Amino acid sequence: MAVSGARPHRRAVSLGPRPEGLVGREDLIEQVAAAFTATGVPQVQVLFGLGGVGKTSVAVEYAYRFADSYGIVWQFSAEHPESLDGQIGELAAHLGLLVPPTTDDAAGSLRSHLVNADRPWLLVLDNVVDDAVVHRLVPAAGPGHVVVTSQRATWPGRARVREVPVLDRDVAIKYLLSAADSSDVAASGLLVDALGGLPLALAHAAAFLRVTGRPVQFYLDKLSAMLVRPGRGKAVARTWSAAIGQLGSAGSPAMALLRVLACFAPDAIPVRLLFPDDAPVPEGLSADVADQLAALADDGLAVDDALIALREFSLVGSPVGDGVVSIHRLVQAATLEAMSPEEQSAWRQAATALVVRATPDDPNLPETWPAFTALLRHIEQVVPAEHDCYLRAADHLGAVGNYRAAVAMARRSLEARARRQGPDAPETLAARQSTAQWTGHAGDFEGARDQCADLLPIRERLLGVEHPDTLSTRSVLAFWTARAGSYAAARNQGIDLLSIRERVLGIEHPDTLLTRSNLAGWTGNAGDPAGARDQFADLLPRYQHVLGDEHPVTLITRTHLARWVGEAGDPAGARDRFADVLPIRERVFGAEHPDTLHVRANLARWTGKAGAAAEARDQYAVLLPLFERVLGPEHPATLTNRRNLAHWTGKAGDAHGAREQLVALLPLHQRVLGPEHVSTLHARHNLARWTKNAGDNAGARDQFTDLLPIRERVLGSEHLDTVKTRNGLASCITETERVPGATE
């Protein structure tokens, strides 16, 4: 089932808890398996039916049974399309993918990966309301299978639609008699009829009867006042009403836990994170809710006892991992419907407080990433978008390299804050800066620069020119000014910023050190590589002292120092420094994090600069598909690596091949970055160079002639790159036509 020309990818599996007691569903699972065939076109099967009929159980059980046949097995909770960005980010983290910044489709990179997969893949799209979700995630080609669960019976396209019916009456009666250890066939038949044959409702009833030892007739009597036409959750609500009396009083720990779990996203609720040992009840809750939650904090086993009680009545799934549980949406709905609107609001407030307490403060530290990953869906579900916790989650997505999802989440936070707190509120301005930051990391350097340029005068007006937030905006503006190609302007901005930060914060404050680091880089890019090297060499021990050897900022500083050691004339030293830092970056950030790929690219570059051109070419040839897959084919970093591959192809002896690669690359540079971007000018210079080396001296002369005035205007007449272009032109023309001031 492999696709010709496909690229291999790592295995990725994420599923909810495995269903228990799939009574009467074996034939349906076999039908799903038999309908899937091995083709290069994704096949979609839709399981539809009433809520509680067991659609998800069938889909997930199929996935568990046949997981070994797939390279990717991933379950998406698709009820709320706005939460899919975060879920896509989870899968992207496993596959080393990022969403391309040049498209509006947040799942485009994932679809591209699935098209080119070398093994079959399986997606489970659970509780789909809008078929647009399917189109968003499923590519037009690729060796994939898709199982959709939905209450919709009508689906467009080629999807195979399969109804999941209520249980056959005889099968349901046998199940109830066995599970409840009863011999009352007549009463069991009446109970099956009352519950409409819904497996979820029957599982709740069986759990109630098994745990309490009550006869089936007792359960029927409990339900008699509520016997209405079953369907769409009514039966589950009735079974829940019967079970609630057995959980204890309304204020019991089990009831408190059930009520708060009803407010979260239904899958993978990290109970241990939300209820750490010895943690007090969050402040600011209603007195009644606070008292009920206090019962869960009374001793170290209260949460465990509550989970046992809920599990005994099948109100939650079996815990997996470190206290991670799932709860069916219908149980959540029934739990909430039993409360007044005021009670619902109070418990949702409690859920928000628990998530906020569990969310780490610093999304940039790798040790916090597992907690953010576990909480992300629940943050999206219960935390208002204007809350600081929500924006921290957006920053986490950016920190792990999922830039597109970070932009989308930060923008939602910005819009919510602007509505609730006003466009000039400090919280709104913070969200504006976060949105600008991730816009730049997603590849839109000019957009990030312009957003910061708009933000800076507002912060100066409201906060003053020396306020830390104002200085932060100045720092980010200078950073994206440099990334947009204006190194001299960024350097000048950095000089002004450094003097203020040293005076206001001190010389070893992390923000001061960051400014020094950025200024060192801009100094080098503006034409002083030795100055950059010396500044980074002075900075590194300060970072090691203040932050530690493996802090991300320390590692970034090591890579900057390695680069400028090379730029200042020691390529072998640069190569060795990059080789030393690479395994640490892989361990701390991950092997396919964008920053790790940049370290690998620099290692390739300095390997070539140290004299091994063919080895550098081969390293870039391996790296380029990774950049295309992780960042997208038109990301600026991908274009830079294409340009470098062409360069080392030429240096390894293939001038014609280098020229042809650059001919294909230059239009992309001009379209994506602009005709006068520094990287575009690099591409033009390299094209002229390899055109000359390929034997076309006249063509190269014309290309250098066109390029020289642009570089003089953009970079200055004495910039190293301008001098290189002037020298390239001089080498192409005759002695009588030599450009004044050019050197051999």
Core attributes:
disordered N terminus; two-stranded antiparallel sheet; 8 strands; 34 helices; globular
Helix content: 55-70%
Largest sheet: 6 strands, parallel
Q: Uncertain spans, ≥5 residues at pLDDT below 50? A: 1-9, 99-104, 225-233
Give the C-alpha Rg.
Answer: 31 Å
How many strands appear in the DSSP assignment? Answer: 8
End-to-end Cα distance, whole Å, is: 59 Å
Strand content: under 5%
Q: What is the number of helical segments per DSSP (H or I, 4+ residues)?
A: 34
Overall mean confidence score, pLDDT: 85
Decide which structural class fits the backbone.
Answer: mainly alpha
Q: Order of strands side by side in the largest beta sheet?
A: 1-3-4-5-2-6
The gross shape turns out to be globular
Walkthrough of the structure:
This protein is mainly α. Helix content is 62%, strand content 5%. The strands form 2 sheets. The chain has a 6-stranded parallel sheet, with helices on both faces. Strands 7-8 form a two-stranded antiparallel sheet. α27 packs antiparallel against α28 (594-609). The longest helix has 19 residues, at 403-421. The chain is globular, with a radius of gyration of 31 Å. The model is unreliable at 1-9, 99-104 and 225-233 (pLDDT under 50).
